[in-house]
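Appendix C: a fully annotated inverse folding record. The material below is reproduced so that readers can follow the format used throughout the book. The structure is listed first as tokens, followed by the designed sequence.
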């Protein structure tokens, strides 16, 4: 099991060019929530696992392009 660290940044970080929205760093891998600025950071070289375990995801709804953490999804009624 890998350990992620979390911090809340007030400023949205830029996406890494060429990668999907919300991936704001590759080394170390970092994923950011669009709602609250929460950033999950994983160990170097474990980008895929970091994205999965961070649980900062896109909603499945139509035209929804924001990446949100669980707390933000629940606040918007997107998660039960
Ligand atoms: Zn959030």
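Designed amino acids, in order:
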């Amino acid at each position: 099991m890998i350990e992620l660290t979390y911090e809340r940044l007030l400023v949205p970080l830029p996406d890494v060019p060429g990668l999907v929205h919300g991936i704001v760093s590759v080394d170390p891998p970092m994923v950011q929530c669009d709602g609250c600025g929460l950033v999950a950071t994983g160990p170097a070289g474990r980008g895929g696992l970091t994205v999965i375990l961070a649980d900062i995801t896109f909603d499945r709804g139509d035209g929804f392009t924001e990446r949100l953490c669980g707390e933000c999804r629940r606040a918007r009624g997107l998660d039960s």
